[in-house]
Design goal:
This protein has about 375 residues and is of the alpha/beta class. About 40% of the residues lie in helices and about 15% in strands. It starts with 7 loop residues before the first helix and ends with a helix.
């Protein structure tokens, strides 16, 4: 039985006619950059995140960059970033001329903690990027307490965590800004690129709205150095449709994750933990095993696709060699990168496919 790692066709086909009709409306209305479709999505997505508004952007990486800019961060500042995450989390610092300083993770939930952040602090630290990795909320109370103690800004990278909650609070609104990606593979993905930012600070939202249109609040008058970071109307039209299905898709991801957690019994296999504080949304179901590569080969023979997310920690990436990190600097992140493998988890997986994955892993 074939089990793909992800098949977007299965989610798009039932919505195809509705998406094409929405695109026709956007096309006929010439609503290509911002416009009504984006405004409707900003309100609806803000409501889904537990607030009244959001700012639509061209992608999630931009959202991280503009969050840092809007919070007044820049050259000379250090920003703490997890060592185990996608590279865009580190671009938060690099793109604005700041320096990323990497923090190790807790292998139980793949996120940073107050203790790992504290170990990374420098006299120049001005902010923390907290990544709710794989849709698992980080331990925010302890992190926010540390941030308050040290006067640090907190940016929540929620690119993989749409609708995740921490102690019944939505991710993205506990820190100073929360950023989201709508890359097609995300839990809420467009048919192309897209991103958004939320914040409990009205001034942050206002600044980001200005920065996304060339630093201009009034046409041809530029108050700040901004850029062309607008969300496209065609992407917003898709997201408006898909957002209505996100809650159901999330419930299905949780159901699959529960079956995996209950059924996977392979010796030495570590499955994702669900801390008592978190309501995870399982963008990925990432396990670890000391013979990871052999396990992947075994699953491939059973026609089960897997992925390595992520095979190299950020502090050892060639682009950051100048920062001077060496193997052993972040032992937990390095161990996870060497042993992790992500299993298929998307809403359209059948019960039979899930059972096949479980049986094949257990037979290794």
């Amino acid at each position: 039985m074939k089990v793909p790692f992800l098949d977007l066709t299965l989610s798009h086909q039932p919505l195809r006619a509705e998406i094409l009709a929405a695109w026709a409306s956007t096309l006929d209305g010439n609503r290509f950059c911002l416009g009504r479709d984006v405004e409707e999505f900003e309100k609806a997505f803000g409501a889904a995140c537990g607030t009244t508004d959001s700012v639509g952007l061209d992608n999630g990486t931009t959202a991280l960059q503009l969050a840092a800019q809007a919070l007044g961060l820049g050259p000379g500042d250090d920003i703490v970033v997890p060592a185990f995450t996608f590279i865009a989390s580190a671009w938060t610092a690099t793109y604005i001329g700041a320096r990323p300083v990497f923090a190790d993770i807790d292998p139980a939930h793949f996120c940073v903690t107050a203790a790992t952040i504290r170990a990374a602090l420098t006299p120049q630290t001005k902010a923390i990027v907290v990544v709710h990795l794989f849709g698992q909320p980080a331990p925010m109370d302890e992190i926010l307490a540390l941030a308050a103690e040290r006067g640090l800004k907190v940016i929540e990278d929620c690119a993989q965590a749409h609708l995740a909650r921490y102690r019944d609070r939505p991710v993205g609104l506990m820190g100073d800004a929360g950023t989201f990606s709508f890359y097609p593979t995300k839990n809420l993905g467009g048919c192309g690129e897209g991103g958004a930012l939320v914040s409990r600070h009205a001034e942050v939202l206002k600044r980001v709205r200005i920065l996304r249109v060339h630093g201009s609040e009034r046409r041809y008058y530029h108050d700040f150095v901004g850029g062309n970071f607008r969300m496209e109307g065609l992407q917003a039209a898709v997201l408006n449709i898909k957002l209505r299905h996100l809650s159901g898709w999330t419930a299905r991801r949780r159901s699959i994750a529960a079956r995996y957690r209950a059924g996977l019994k392979l010796a030495e296999l570590a499955v994702p933990q669900v801390p008592e504080w978190g309501e995870a949304v399982f963008h990925q179901f990432t396990v670890t095993h000391p013979r990871r590569d052999a396990l992947r080969e075994h699953l491939a023979k059973a026609e089960i696709a897997t992925d390595l997310i992520y095979p190299m920690p950020l502090h050892l990436q060639p682009c950051y060699a100048s920062l001077g990190y060496r193997p052993g600097s972040m032992p937990q992140a390095e161990r996870i990168c060497a042993t992790c493998v992500s299993l298929p988890i998307f809403p359209e997986l059948t019960e039979e496919q899930v059972d096949h994955v479980i049986a094949s892993v257990n037979s290794f």
